[in-house]
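Morning!

As promised:
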Amino acid sequence: MEVVVSIQDIRERVKSFRENQLTVGFVPTMGALHEGHLSLVKKAKGENDKTVVSIFVNPLQFGKNEDFRQYPRTFDNDCELLSKEGVDIVFHPKASEMYPEGFCTLVIPEHLEDKLCGKLRPGHFRGVAVIVLKLFNLVKPDVAYFGQKDFQQTVIIKRIVSDLNLDVNISVLPTIRNKEGLALSSRNAYLSETEREGALCLYKALAKAQSTINAGIINTKEIVQEMEKIIRNCKSATIDYVSVVNPETLEEVPRVSSGDVATLAVRIGKTRLIDNIICVSTI
Amino acid sequence: MEVVVSIQDIRERVKSFRENQLTVGFVPTMGALHEGHLSLVKKAKGENDKTVVSIFVNPLQFGKNEDFRQYPRTFDNDCELLSKEGVDIVFHPKASEMYPEGFCTLVIPEHLEDKLCGKLRPGHFRGVAVIVLKLFNLVKPDVAYFGQKDFQQTVIIKRIVSDLNLDVNISVLPTIRNKEGLALSSRNAYLSETEREGALCLYKALAKAQSTINAGIINTKEIVQEMEKIIRNCKSATIDYVSVVNPETLEEVPRVSSGDVATLAVRIGKTRLIDNIICVSTI
């Protein structure tokens, strides 16, 4: 496994892959890797000749009062994990080379960026959009892999890829959870033991959404009420949002049908967690 | 020469070029071709294995009260000219396929889009940015060719290509003028005979900028005054802007040095024309 830092070097490696007609699978990450990331890496590895993973804590997607500085950075451990998976290249660029002086291009997923998480994290998704575009243009993958956990991110990336006619397939893989149902996230590292217990309310609320639908209730307001009840039972939890939305427009649906997404953001103490499920309805 | 209309077809053609290790030169146009465009095509042809020219009057770069509907469309004649030049593919997509329902991605060259022409044509350069990005992603050229006449456009495209790490070289070629100095433009077709006479004031003003510099005056305000004097002598002319700017930031410079660009937009009757020269100073 090779760690590549410079833009020139990644371009050269990718060029030689292309010249040898090798397909490239790509997993963009901010490091602090867990089994969720590794599930993407395994899939990429299985489907492509070469696998590239980027590790870059992207300053542009953090708000002023967010956790850019304290975001967990575990580069050596990450590399060990990726090496074991048989990854070919870890791309670990410097912020100064990714965003040199004079950088001024905004990529804005209008209508999609100000919904759900975007309401509470202004600028976050345009930061995601620009770094993902840059990485795609550098790595030129055939397929890029993302986790369903970051649902809004996957919707926005699919939209931008389609709108800008990028020649890359986006593969979204299921959220990986611990045995109690908590979605794996690098930010789980912030949780105390008690908070980790409280954080289970996210998945419980999502499970409640599905069981409510199973019981024949498809009115979104009622479903959301049931979900919020569960979260309010947890003392350490504060709701940012709870909603059931269309998986392309991110608009809240009045009535739930299969494929709609129950999604939420909840703060457990100071840690903001997100989770979602794709709803199934037989009605 | 093949005329390709669909996104799927252009992708297939480009893929086969790539697989055969053929280089691609690309000239994006809005049609209504003149010798300026053809100079780009000739250059592309000379430097690459395959030459692709797009003809697409991009609705996104026209303002509400601008000339989208009346913009000259001379497709059959354009194809004849391009065929004579030995162009391989004309890409002539439909607006409905380029901007399908739900399209919502903005590409914004911040700081650069609201200067010069951008001040008077709000939204114009983000329209240019998005179509050029889309076309680059579809055609995947090694080199794309633009005319110096559209100076601000070239600055913005170079910036976006650099910011987003696109793997394409941008080649900017000199403005082609008629023997009296008028820069060739598809919009010259709007001019009456008298207006065409009046339109010469653009180049005269630019020539005056250079001769003023040659005479040892490098103060931008003085140079701009000299230029404006010449334009005011033309009855049919209304100044949109006259400036001398840095070729990367587009900021007006206080004193002119070599490489700075004297640039102007002038309305001749109802027709808005632009022109510029790269200044040379020996001081």
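Chain A touches chain B through 32 residues (CB under 8 Å).

Hope this helps with the figure draft.
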